[in-house]
Design a protein that fits this description.
Elements (H helix, E strand, L loop, with lengths): L1 E2 L2 E2 L5 H13 L3 H6 L5 E7 L3 H14 L3 H5 L3 H10 L2 E7 L11 H18 L4 E6 L5 H14 L4 E5 L13 H9 L3 E5 L15 H19 L2 H4 L4 E4 L6 H12 L10 H9 L2 E3 L6 H10 L5 E2 L13 H6 L4 H15 L6
Helix pairs in contact: 6-7, 7-8, 11-12
């Protein structure tokens, strides 16, 4: 019997121990495993504009377990992590609850988009960005989307999973989705905690579970209210493997057929809608998470992401490197699938 061309009779106890030590003790093994494709496109990568940080520092320190890493962010820190982990380009986003700034929301959103465009232009090929829009003010969001896409040449539009007590499925937001559908826009939707659930379990940071369940609620709400079917030309990206969606998709789509407003004649029809969405694998690359995602949808809908600076590429890459995929599938997740969404990045 042989193992990769080596006779099993020649493998000693020392060889086995050495192999185990290399696996356990060398954290940079994942870097070596990533070398075959050092051209990743990271669709989940954040900016921390200094003028916004000044306004949000206290709230960030009070609410986020990753606050110190976020406060220390610079464009150079992003590029250093990108270079280390084989990321050619990061698509920047800023998932701020703009409504918390009230009358200043539209102006701060504009400054944030211009800041991202300046980073893209100053570091050729390294950055793109999703334009932020000041929802829940739909009129202001329409104006900012046009400016971000037409003047700043954003790669798409960034939204969050809920706005206070409203989800993107709310009819109030239909004019924005109609316009983004007309433009065939890529829309990246980042998690937040809904107004109801920021302090459900004392002592548990909100991002731990509430962000993940809000991703699932958002997708479910948009499915049941027909957003995906009424606006089929929008290319949606959801985060973190779709959170709980792969495990709940059967239950969700079954119930979608019995709700009159959902408009699905069969469970298969509703499931097909969910499977045409895109999902990044950001920090959700444990064997159970990736196994569930891959069982749920084709690899063509999976995208690479990191959530930097809230989390590090090292929280995503090692698990992805170990997960059993073909070379072609790995290239698709690393870069190929994103190139289809962002043709300007085609090499």
């Amino acid at each position: 019997m042989t193992l990769k061309g080596v006779s099993m009779s020649r493998i000693t106890r020392r060889d086995v121990i050495a192999g185990l030590c290399a696996t356990v003790l060398l954290p940079d093994l994942a870097i070596a495993q990533s070398k075959p494709n050092p051209r990743r496109i990271d669709v989940h990568h954040h900016t921390v504009p200094p003028f916004l940080l000044e306004r949000t520092r206290a709230a960030l320190l009070a609410s986020s377990p990753y606050a110190n890493d976020v406060i220390a962010w610079t464009p150079e820190a992003s590029i250093a992590q990108m270079d280390r982990w084989g990321i050619a380009t990061a698509i920047l986003s800023n998932p701020t609850q703009w409504s918390s700034f009230k009358d200043e929301a539209a102006g701060l959103c504009r400054r944030t988009n211009e800041y991202s465009a300046q980073l893209r232009d100053a570091h050729k090929g390294r950055f793109g960005f999703f334009g932020a829009v000041p929802l829940p003010d739909t009129d202001a969001a329409l104006e900012e989307a046009a400016y971000a896409l037409d003047t700043l040449k954003a790669d798409g539009i960034g939204l969050i999973t809920s706005y206070g007590d409203k989800y993107p499925s709310d009819p109030q937001f239909d004019p924005l989705f109609a316009e983004l559908n007309r433009r065939k826009t890529v829309v990246f939707i980042h998690p937040t905690a809904p107004g109801c659930c920021t302090h459900v379990v004392p002592g548990v940071p909100v991002p731990t579970v509430e962000f993940m369940f809000d991703v699932t609620r958002c997708i479910t709400a948009m499915l049941f209210h027909g957003v995906f079917t009424r606006y089929p030309d929008i290319r949606f990206i959801f985060t973190h493997d779709g959170a709980a969606l792969p495990m709940l998709a059967d239950r969700i789509t079954r119930n979608a057929t019995v709700v009159k407003g959902a408009g699905f004649a069969s469970q298969a029809e509703a499931m097909a809608v969910l499977k045409r969405l895109h999902y990044d694998i950001t920090t959700s690359t444990s064997p159970p998470a990736l196994t569930a995602l891959k069982a749920f949808l084709p690899v063509s809908q999976m995208l690479f992401g990191t959530d930097f600076p809230f989390l590090k590429p090292g929280d995503t890459v090692p698990g992805f490197a170990r997960f059993p995929l073909s070379a072609a599938e790995r290239r698709a997740v690393d870069r190929g699938n994103a190139e289809k969404l962002f043709p300007r990045l085609r090499a």
